[in-house]
Amino acid sequence: MAERADGGEAILAACRDLGVEVIFSSPGSEWAPVWEALARQRRDGTPGPVYLDLMHETLAVGMAIGYTLVKGKPQLVLVHAGPGLLQGATGIHGALLTGVPMVIASAESTTYGEVPPDPGSQWYRNLSVVGGPQAMAAPFTKWATQVGDVSTLYGSVVRAAELARRGPAGPVYLNVPVEVLLQEWTPPRAARPVAEPGARVSPADELARAARRLVAAEKPLIITESAGRHPGGFEALVAFAEALAIPVVEPQSAVCGNFPRDHHLHRGGDAAKFAAEADLIVLVGCRAPWYPPSNRPQETEVLVLDDVPHRPYVDYQVLGADQYLEGDIAPTLRALTEAVREAGIDEVLVSGRESESRALVPAETAAPATDAIDAAQVVRCLRELLDPDAAVVDETITHSRVVQRELRADRPGRYSYVQGGLGQGLGVALGVKLADPGREVALVIGDGSLLYNPIVQALSASRAQGLPVLVVVFNNRQYLSMKLNHLRFYPGGAAVGEDDFRGVDLSDQPALAELVEPFGMTGLTVTDPGELKSVLAQALDTVRAGTTALVDVRVAR
């Protein structure tokens, strides 16, 4: 039978022109046309994306998130119909919150076998969705639609990826019906490599007005959640803060490392404490700077610098800006720094803030000597043992502030926090490793968070793809966050009086270190503070030799 190009070839051609490097897939029967196009790609030696078969949708999406955090460009994720889309929804929503661009695709049937080609009876019996799977995807994606014909499939994939990259960056969804995938396709004459997005910076008069505010401020403060996610944002924020000696706070809502934690201008994570004393607050890439939202300092001016300050996917958001600078983070910070210099810096004010900041640098306190392992001790050991350029992915809950504080991330990409629902950490860490194989990658994760992950599928992918990572479990054998929230609402309730809590106990969990053994990986458990560093070093040696290792650390709290 003569070969003919169909929808599978259209998708692959779009991937090539977009520069998609990896197709992450938890396979479904609709994707046979893509698989056939991939087989032809390999047979003919045609350059194109690598395809990964993965065993769970959360894993596929998580790996795409991690990969894109490193590479910056959207990749393609293929899942199965409506059920596969829903399985991956937690990760897709996490990508939306994190601002990670990607294209998610699944299918439906539009003919149910009434006319050729026959898509299979499963689409009629089990997989049809009223309104189409794009209706399912709409609440947790940036944009969702159906592709109506093969003639628009190539252009729809290209448009989806371009939309995904524009601010606010995030996941987009395409429903590509089986019938469209099987239609004969004629490549468009206008196909060409897709251009990079252009940079956006506020006009000179707006920059000058913001510069005047900054020069006049006596106690300015920078609060940032995501500057480090933007290309060049980390370095541009350092240069801007240093030019005016402005203290920087990374609140609990920070999604990554944005500013060196060991810098004398870094003030930690308590935004409310310093905001109360500031006369100008600069919000750089912040979606939720105040909590509760009405807690904006009333007598303080607020300058907002963001690519899209008001996130359309956030149901309620209060920034309270006195001025906006809307544009790409790094170019806008650089332009604002130059505008400040042109406006004339008050060297006396800046010198005073500089001296004050250096005097406030706290000395690192020693961990308390106890018979139990303290979470801070774990992070300090990791900071000492890991390569300085290692990437640390964090899916802890009650220990996240400790991780952020004690890791002292000092460069871009050093620290990333997993956004959205739990269960994505293993996939994100593996995606980071796939994107940068020469980089050391560690996942710090709570025992409750780990048990939400597709553990078997992720460990299988780690072995199959040669992606060794270090997994460090902060194991307190409970869902402590559940207990803390119960205590918030009922501090003197019956559960406290009777020590009778629900949704908390994880004492019957399996031996976590043994979960990796069927995959030929190293699993270790440590309970003695005196042995912690040597056990972590042993596990890290295993990872450096090419095999994933999991350390079950029994922490005191």
TrEMBL record:
GO molecular function, one term: acetolactate synthase activity
Domain Thiamine pyrophosphate enzyme N-terminal TPP-binding: 6-113
Domain Thiamine pyrophosphate enzyme central: start-end pairs: 207-336
Transmembrane feature ranges: none
Signal peptide: none
Matches recorded under Pfam families: TPP_enzyme_C, TPP_enzyme_M, TPP_enzyme_N
GO cellular component, one term: acetolactate synthase complex
This protein's UniProt keywords: Thiamine pyrophosphate
GO BP of this protein: isoleucine biosynthetic process; L-valine biosynthetic process
InterPro entries in the cross-refs: DHS-like_NAD/FAD-binding_dom, THDP-binding, Thiamin_PyroP_enz_cen_dom, Thiamin_PyroP_enz_TPP-bd_dom, TPP_enz, TPP_enzyme_TPP-bd
Domain Thiamine pyrophosphate enzyme TPP-binding: residue ranges: 399-553
Protein family (similarity comment): Belongs to the TPP enzyme family.
Protein name: Thiamine pyrophosphate-binding protein
UniProt source species: Amycolatopsis acidicola
Lineage: Bacteria, Bacillati, Actinomycetota, Actinomycetes, Pseudonocardiales
